[in-house]
Every structure is written in structure tokens, then in C-alpha cells.
């Protein structure tokens, strides 16, 4: 269709027909493009593409003629707009918007508007002066008339406004007066209250009132003259209050100095009661604190200062009064005075009396004064501001703590009563707990307690040394005889005796050891319990307590008990019977050491298998004592033998023997028999060693009698009598005086003396000389020098002497050369 239309358009050459035709074509194309039929969209697009090439050529030809036509059309529309009523301008504008040259029309319209504006401006410039004159005349007429009307109607309103203004000024003046009076009346009331309080001597409220008046009220009324009068009077009032406060402070210092002991006693009593409550509850654990200085405590303590004390009645007002005076410029003066006075009081409190160590009351008074002093200081710290501070408290407490430790260390060293030392320890613990509750650090006091613990141990050792000596002096050194089960049970309750055979015996029974065995065992246990008492409340672990008790027990065993046993054994009045009993006793005590270990383990709850656990040295102590007793038995037995031998009175010039042994030797043998019979309860080796030692000593002493330089001559009769005594000794040795020791063994002790006597009695010098130096010699144990000395003392009978004169000379020569 488009192609047909463009072909028809080519037949027309007039401009109008071409324009109309083009407009018709464009309208038709726009209709077709905008609202194409739904059934044929594809065909319309194809037709448009085919017709676009043809229309481009056509439009190019018609563009030049079309611009002239458009310009004429726009001129026509503009004339029509200028001449047409605004109600009918719609169709005209519609024709513009139906065209396609909107922008071009707008340019034309803008040019036409500017032209009209120039014409209007020319017209106004021409008629401006007349217009201005007309307007001016009009305004004059209207303004004069309006002004007159306004003046007439505003007179009444002006009078009313003036009246209203006067009322507002009066109202404003009244309000201002009320405000000023409202501002001044509280000042006057406050000043009147201040005067009343000063007259009533209520200085603390007066000081508060003065402070409020000066800082809150007077600055608001400073422009008034009466405020300056008040300001001039305030310094005098403040000085008056300051003087009164200083006087009250001095009275307060004197009061708390007098009542510090009562305050401290109350605080320590409350702390002790609290400790009792805490100790009744199960403890989860404890540990020492490690700090320096003084802790910051939020509150003074659970134990408050006694509010009924005279000091507490004063400090409620005086301290706060001082607080405010400090704020007014006298702070340094009050601080320095107070701290200086309190330091002096502290030095007096910390100075102990010279006899304080004699009674517990002296220590209590000393501690009460110190606690009272520092409780007051803590109370002042937490109830005032600026009078004391933490730095001052730390310095004061450090000084006091060093002084306290020095005093306690000195006076505790003077104490000899363990009960007093133990009470002192408990008092120090309460003292430390009390001050710790108020925030003071007391670690050094617990360190001091460890030092006092060592002193306490030394005092206990001295006490138990006297106890042991008394037990040894009171003992009868005989086995305990029990006649009933009750008596036997009493002994076994004191000492862990395990002897099945003894338990099966009928009463009366004889317990092998003497009474000091259960007594010593009980005293060692009592000593460990006394050491344990001191360890309570020292914040020590179970291991530390166990180590302390074991070390103290070892000191008791190795130093005190061992020394007491050694002294006992070496006493001159202790005989062989007592020594035998001591050996038996120490044997049982040695066996009981394992029970002491169990006892210590039970009271400390620390296993002995724990690493670094100290073992008790009781076994070695009792072993050493037993060995000393054994040596003492050997020594005393030899001394007894010497005493009997001192009774020997040999007639060395005896012609014929008496026919029996000497009386002294018979008595000696009987003594030895009875003595060794007592040795049945001793260990076998001890009795055997004692018997062998006695026989050897007896043999050597008898030989010394023969070789005594004072014996110048002796006869064969004396030798034969001496032989009878030796036979008595050999008979004793062969009788097995001690179980387990064969007679032949004991006889070896007398073999040297036997061979020597046989040599002289048989006069078998030829055999001696012939076999000398041989192992099979009959007289192997005869020393040549001994034989020579005895030969030189001989005063033999003539026949034997002549018979063996030649051989005797030869023998003498041979012995001399041998020697």
C-alpha cells in the first residue's frame, strides 16, 4: 500500500498537494506502526522496510519546498493566536502539535514574544512619568484620609496601652522584689542558724552551715552590702571553730590513748570468737599470703570497734569536724599534728615492759594496746578523708611490725615454760588474725611463729630432759611384775607389747622390761603431741607439720634421750644388774620405733612412704645406748674382777700348797656364776662376749700377778698354789656358764697361763727348747721373755735345782739369747 501511495504522490507537482499528501502518508504510517493488526505483524514490518528506501529519496526532494511551507504555516498560527480569544485557542494549538516541527515553532514563538516585549518597553518608557504622577496623586489622597482615621481611632487605644505599660512595670517590680527576697531570705536564715549553733556550741553543724553559707548562698547575693558584712564575719567564726576543733582533737587523742587497750581487747575477743566459729566449720584449705605493706580493704573488718567506748562516742563528730577544717586550709596542720601525736603514741604502745615475758597477762596487755591503736587508725581511715591515708598507714604498720617482731623475738627467748610459749603462740595467732581482718598484712608474724616454734622445741627438749632423768631415777631396773589382767592391760595400753608366750602365762606374770620402758614410750608420744599443738593455725601444710614433728622427735631421741641414757649408763651406782636391765629395755624400745612411726603418721595424715619424709632415728638411738651399756658391762665386769683380785694375798715363798684354791678366787668364781646367770635375758652374743672378756681379763690379771715387779722371789709351792687357782678358773670355763659358749672356747682364755705353769711345774725345759718356734710345740703360747722373768724369780728346792743345774744354766743362756 505504501508503495502505491508514493507512486501517486509522484504525479503531483504542486506544493500544497505534496504537503497534504506527505502529511497523510506520515499519519497513515504512524497509525499502521503504532496499532498494527494482530493477525499480520510480520507483513506490516516487511512492507515498512521495503517502503523506507523509496521514502528517503522522496523526502530528500521535498525537504527544500517543505521548509518554506512550514514557515508560512507557523506565521499563520501565530497571527491566529494573537487575534483569537483564549477560549478558542485550542484547535490552533492542536494543529501545531499535529505537525512535526515543534522545535521550530517554539523558536518562532520565542522570537515573537521578545518582539512584543520590546514594544511594551517602548510604550512604558514613553508613558512612565505621567503614570508616576498619577500614582503619587492617588497615594496622597488615600494616605491623608487613612492617617486621620487611624489617629482618631488610636487615641483611646494609646491611653489604654500606657495604662497597661504602667501595670506591667509594677508587676515586674513586684516579681523582682519577690525574687530578691526569695534569694536573700535563705541566706539570712542560714546566717541566723549559724549564730544559733555557735551559741549552742554545736561546732560540727555550725561548720557545715558555714561551709554551705560561704560556698552556696553568699555567692548568689554578693552584690548586697549585708553579704559583705557576713563574708567578713565568716573567717572569725572559722578560726573559732578551728581552735575548738584542735582542742577537741587533743582531747580525742588522749581519750583513744587511754581506751586503746579496751578497744583492742574487744576486737581480739571478737576475732577469737570468729575463729571458734570458723574452726567448727569444715576447712577447705589454707595458705599464707605474700604481700608487702597494707592491703586496701573495702571495710574495716567483720569485728567493728566497740561503739560504746568513750573514744567512739567522740569520733562521730570530731573526726568529721577535722575533715571539714582541713578543707579550709588547715589540712597540713591537722594532718601533721595528728600523725605526729599518733607516732609518739605508737612508740609508747610498742615499748614492752621488761618483765612482760614472765606472765601471759603481760603479753595480752601488750597486744591489746597495739590492736586498739591500729583498729582506731583503720576506723579513722575509713570514716574521714585526708586525716590519714594508705601511705601513712603502711609506713606506720611497717615500723610497728618490725618493732613487734623484735620485742617478741627477745622476750620469747626468755621463756622457759613450754605452756607459756604455747599460750603466747595462740595469742600471736589471734593478734595476727585480728589485724589481718582490718586489712593489715601479718605474714612476718607467721614467720616469727616459725622461729618461736624452734624456741618452743628447745624448751620442750629441756623439759623432757628433766622428765627422762626423773624417770631413770625413779625406776627400780627390775622386770615389771603384774598380778592381774587389769595391771597387764595398763602396761600394754602404755606400750605396744606383743608377746604371745607371755600372754599365755598365768598370773603373776613378769614382763621382761622395767617401768621406764612404757613411761619413755608414753613421754615420746606426749612430746610429739605437744609439738603438734604448736603447729595448729600456722597455715602449714600436712607435709610441713609432719616434717616439723619428725625433726623435733629426732632431736628428742638423738640428743635428749640418747644423752640421758648415756649419762644413766655411766653413773657409778649403776651395777651390772641395772646395765643388763637397761640393755633389755633399750631392745624393747628399739622394737617400738615402728609404732612411733605409725603414731606420727596417724596424727599428721602423711604417709611415711612420701618422698622426702624424714625417718625417726629412734632405732639408732637405742642401738647406740645398748652398745654403750654392753661396753659398760664389759668394763664393770672387769672392774669387779679387779676388785676381787685386789684381795689376793699370795705367799710367794710358800713351801707347800694349801691344797685348795684361794678364797678370793672362789668368791670371784661364784660372783661370775651368779652374774652370768642374770645374763640369760640378754642377747646370746652379748652374754658370750661378756663371759669371754671376763675370762681373758682374769687370765691376763693372774699372769700380771706372777710377773709383778714387786714379787722378787717365788717358790715352787707358790707356783703349785697358783696352779690350784688356775684349775678353779678352768673348771669354771668348762662348766659352760653362758649358753651357747663351749667350755673349750673359754679355756682358751687360760691357755697361755696353763702352758707357763706346766712348763715350770714339770720343768720340761728341754722339750720347750727343742720344740721352740714349731707349730706343734707343747709350749707354743709360752713367751720366752715371760718365762725368763719367771725363771729369774725362782727360789727352787736344792735337789731339783742341782739335778737340773746344768740344764738350767743352758736353758737360761738359751732363753736369754732367744729373748
TrEMBL record:
Residues 444-793 form the Exocyst complex subunit EXOC6/Sec15 C-terminal domain. InterPro entries: EXOC6/Sec15, EXOC6/Sec15_C, EXOC6/Sec15_C_dom1, EXOC6_Sec15_N, EXOC6PINT-1/Sec15/Tip20_C_dom2. It comes from Eptatretus burgeri (Inshore hagfish). Belongs to the SEC15 family. Residues 108-268 form the Exocyst complex component EXOC6/Sec15 N-terminal domain. GO terms for cellular component: exocyst; plasma membrane. Residues 263-330 are annotated as: Disordered. Residues 267-277, 298-315 have a biased composition (Polar residues). Component of the exocyst complex involved in the docking of exocytic vesicles with fusion sites on the plasma membrane. Keywords: Exocytosis, Transport. GO terms for biological process: Golgi to plasma membrane transport; intracellular protein transport; vesicle tethering involved in exocytosis. This is Exocyst complex component. Residues 318-327 have a biased composition (Acidic residues).
Amino acid at each position: 500500500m505504501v508503495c502505491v501511495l508514493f507512486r501517486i504522490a509522484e504525479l503531483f507537482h504542486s506544493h500544497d498537494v505534496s504537503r497534504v499528501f506527505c502529511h497523510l502518508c506520515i499519519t497513515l504510517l504512524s497509525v499502521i506502526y503504532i496499532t498494527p493488526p494482530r493477525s499480520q505483524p510480520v507483513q506490516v514490518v516487511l512492507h515498512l522496510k521495503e517502503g523506507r528506501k523509496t521514502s528517503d529519496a522522496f523526502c530528500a526532494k521535498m525537504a527544500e519546498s517543505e521548509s518554506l511551507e512550514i514557515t508560512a504555516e507557523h506565521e499563520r498560527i501565530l497571527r491566529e493566536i494573537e487575534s483569537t480569544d483564549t477560549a478558542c485557542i485550542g484547535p490552533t494549538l492542536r494543529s501545531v502539535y499535529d505537525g512535526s516541527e515543534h522545535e521550530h515553532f517554539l523558536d518562532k514563538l520565542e522570537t515573537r514574544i521578545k518582539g512584543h516585549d520590546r514594544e511594551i518597553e517602548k510604550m512604558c518608557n514613553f508613558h512612565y512619568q505621567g503614570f508616576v504622577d498619577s500614582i503619587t496623586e492617588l497615594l496622597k489622597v488615600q494616605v491623608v484620609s487613612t492617617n486621620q482615621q487611624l489617629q482618631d481611632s488610636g487615641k483611646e487605644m494609646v491611653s489604654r496601652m500606657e495604662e497597661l505599660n504602667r501595670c506591667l512595670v509594677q508587676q515586674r517590680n513586684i516579681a523582682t522584689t519577690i525574687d530578691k527576697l526569695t534569694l536573700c531570705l535563705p541566706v539570712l536564715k542560714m546566717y541566723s542558724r549559724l549564730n544559733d549553733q555557735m551559741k549552742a556550741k554545736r561546732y560540727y553543724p555550725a561548720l557545715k552551715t558555714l561551709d554551705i553559707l560561704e560556698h552556696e548562698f553568699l555567692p548568689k547575693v554578693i552584690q548586697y552590702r549585708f553579704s559583705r558584712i557576713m563574708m567578713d564575719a565568716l573567717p572569725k567564726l572559722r578560726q573559732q571553730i578551728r581552735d575548738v576543733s584542735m582542742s577537741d582533737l587533743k582531747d580525742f587523742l588522749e581519750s583513744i590513748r587511754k581506751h586503746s587497750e579496751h578497744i583492742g581487747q574487744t576486737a581480739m575477743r571478737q576475732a577469737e570468737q570468729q575463729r571458734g566459729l570458723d574452726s567448727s566449720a569444715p576447712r577447705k584449705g589454707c595458705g599464707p599470703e605474700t604481700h608487702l605493706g597494707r592491703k586496701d580493704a573495702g571495710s574495716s573488718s567483720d569485728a567493728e570497734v566497740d561503739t560504746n567506748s568513750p573514744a567512739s562516742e567522740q569520733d562521730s563528730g570530731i573526726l568529721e569536724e577535722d575533715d571539714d577544717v582541713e578543707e579550709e586550709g588547715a589540712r597540713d596542720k591537722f594532718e601533721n599534728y595528728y600523725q605526729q601525736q599518733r607516732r609518739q603514741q605508737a612508740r609508747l604502745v610498742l615499748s614492752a615492759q621488761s618483765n612482760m615475758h614472765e606472765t601471759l597477762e603481760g603479753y595480752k596487755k601488750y597486744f591489746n594496746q597495739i590492736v586498739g591503736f591500729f583498729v582506731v587508725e583503720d576506723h579513722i581511715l575509713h570514716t574521714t578523708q585526708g586525716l590519714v591515708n594508705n601511705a601513712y598507714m603502711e609506713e606506720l604498720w611497717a615500723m610497728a611490725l618490725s618493732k613487734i617482731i623484735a620485742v617478741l623475738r627477745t622476750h620469747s627467748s626468755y621463756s622457759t615454760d613450754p605452756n607459756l610459749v604455747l599460750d603466747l603462740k595462740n595469742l600471736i595467732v589471734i593478734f595476727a588474725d585480728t589485724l589481718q581482718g582490718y586489712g593489715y598484712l601479718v605474714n612476718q608474724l607467721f614467720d616469727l611463729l616459725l622461729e618461736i616454734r624452734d624456741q618452743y622445741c628447745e624448751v620442750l627438749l629441756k623439759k623432757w630432759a628433766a622428765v627422762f632423768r626423773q624417770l631413770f631415777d625413779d625406776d627400780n631396773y627390775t622386770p615389771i611384775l603384774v598380778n592381774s589382767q587389769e595391771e597387764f592391760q595398763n602396761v600394754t595400753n602404755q606400750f605396744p607389747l606383743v608377746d604371745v608366750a607371755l600372754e599365755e602365762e598365768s598370773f603373776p606374770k613378769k614382763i621382761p622390761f622395767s617401768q621406764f620402758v612404757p613411761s619413755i614410750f608414753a613421754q615420746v608420744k606426749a612430746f610429739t603431741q605437744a609439738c603438734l599443738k604448736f603447729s595448729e593455725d600456722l597455715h602449714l601444710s600436712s607435709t610441713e607439720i609432719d616434717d616439723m614433728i619428725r625433726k623435733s622427735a629426732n632431736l628428742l631421741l638423738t640428743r635428749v634421750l640418747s644423752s640421758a641414757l648415756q649419762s644413766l649408763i655411766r653413773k657409778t651406782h649403776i651395777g651390772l644388774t641395772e646395765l643388763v636391765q637397761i640393755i633389755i629395755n633399750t631392745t624393747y624400745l628399739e622394737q617400738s620405733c615402728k609404732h612411733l612411726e605409725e603414731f606420727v603418721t596417724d596424727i599428721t595424715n602423711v604417709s611415711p612412704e612420701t618422698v622426702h619424709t624424714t625417718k625417726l632415728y629412734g632405732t639408732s638411738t637405742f642401738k647406740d645406748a645398748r652398745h654403750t651399756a654392753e661396753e659398760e658391762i664389759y668394763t664393770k665386769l672387769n672392774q669387779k674382777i679387779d676388785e676381787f683380785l685386789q684381795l689376793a694375798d699370795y705367799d710367794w715363798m710358800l713351801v707347800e700348797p694349801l691344797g685348795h684354791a684361794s678364797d678370793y678366787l672362789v668368791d670371784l668364781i661364784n660372783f661370775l656364776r651368779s652374774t652370768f646367770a642374770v645374763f640369760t635375758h640378754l642377747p646370746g652374743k652379748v652374754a658370750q662376749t661378756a663371759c669371754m672378756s671376763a675370762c681373758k681379763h682374769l687370765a691376763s690379771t693372774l699372769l700380771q700377778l706372777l710377773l709383778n715387779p714387786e714379787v722378787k722371789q717365788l717358790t715352787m709351792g707358790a707356783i703349785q698354789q697358783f696352779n690350784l687357782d688356775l684349775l678353779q678358773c678352768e673348771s669354771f670355763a668348762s662348766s659352760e656358764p653362758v649358753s651357747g659358749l663351749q667350755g673349750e672356747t673359754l679355756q682358751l682364755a687360760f691357755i697361755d697361763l696353763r702352758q707357763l705353769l706346766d712348763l715350770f711345774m714339770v720343768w720340761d725345759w728341754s722339750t720347750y727348747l727343742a720344740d721352740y718356734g714349731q707349730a706343734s710345740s707343747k709350749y707354743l703360747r709360752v713367751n720366752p721373755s715371760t718365762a725368763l722373768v719367771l725363771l729369774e724369780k725362782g727360789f727352787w728346792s736344792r735337789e731339783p735345782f742341782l739335778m737340773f743345774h746344768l740344764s738350767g744354766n743352758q736353758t737360761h743362756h738359751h732363753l736369754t739369747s732367744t729373748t
